[in-house]
Amino acid sequence: MDFENVLIEQHTNLAIVTVNRPKKLNALNTQTIKELHTAFKRLDENTEIKVIIVTGSGEKAFVAGADIKEFSDFTVEEGTELARKGQELLFDFVQNLGTPVIAAVNGFALGGGLELAMAAHFRVASSNAKMGLPEVSLGVIPGYGGTQRLSQLVGKGKAMEMIMTANMISAEEAKDWGLVNYVVEQIDLLPLCKKLAGKITNNSSVAIAAAIKSVNANYTNCVNGYSVEIENFGLSFGTNDFKEGTTAFLEKRKPNFE
Ligand code: HXC
């Protein structure tokens, strides 16, 4: 498969996966999600690769979310399928990879973008990064595991606040809240991720895969939470607020929710 929207670089036993739609701030459309799935699958199957770094193209965004234009006219069924398929192909898939995945958050990580960063095993951010789950401002809810993983990482109260206000938080706040492990200048972001990757590659890959599985076991048993999220994400597509929220974004105006 030739990739349109994903770049892969290999440096000995490290791979860098870059989401590459900079003109759309690397928004995740269906094609990009499929390509990311294939990229992660291939790298996980490649025994030379010991660590994967995922980042966004350009200096402005990691990933600004799911592609709003693509889903703005979806029905309830299509919305449900979007969330279900995306969780299966990318978000659950990355979380459960035996190869460690570090998210290098180099700018906006919003909605599906923050959800991708949270599906990675840990996160490092550049100082310009901004993170949030703005879905309710569009009349939908997070649908790629965000309601579950954000609560796991920052606790229920902070997750509720971020989701309800749709506010973006700074990289420093994200570090204080435990959402990212380090904050560095953008120029130092990949070097720091590579340094951390280097430490990981000194250790046993077999043991690391077993550790990932064990850490995840405590979180993936809450399968019901992910299903409830998918169901409610899909149901949002039947509301007037969803139509108003997505139309307002595409028309570059503020939504007027009744
Ligand atoms: C589609 C997007 C996009 C997105 C940005 N773009 N984010 N297109 N989907 N999520 C496009 C813009 O339309 C614009 O295209 C170009 O990228 C540059 O963006 P601007 O808005 O002009 O940039 P700026 O003014 O700097 O604002 C940056 C921004 C803003 C604050 C990040 O783009 C923004 O609010 N984006 C949407 C963020 C969001 O709501 N994400 C959550 C999506 S819902 P043109 O063609 O006009 O140049 C989601 C659901 C996940 O993620 C669950 C699914 C199951």
TrEMBL record:
Keyword Protein biosynthesis recorded: no
Keyword annotations: Lyase
Similarity comment: Belongs to the enoyl-CoA hydratase/isomerase family.
Pfam families documented for this protein: ECH_1
InterPro entries reported in the protein's UniProt record: ClpP/crotonase-like_dom_sf, Enoyl-CoA_hyd/isom_CS, Enoyl-CoA_hydra/iso, Enoyl-CoA_hydra_C
Domain of life: Bacteria
Name of the protein in question: Enoyl-CoA hydratase/isomerase family protein
Species: Lutibacter holmesii
Keyword Amino-acid biosynthesis: no
Gene3D superfamilies (UniProt xref): 2-enoyl-CoA Hydratase, Chain A, domain 1, Lyase 2-enoyl-coa Hydratase, Chain A, domain 2
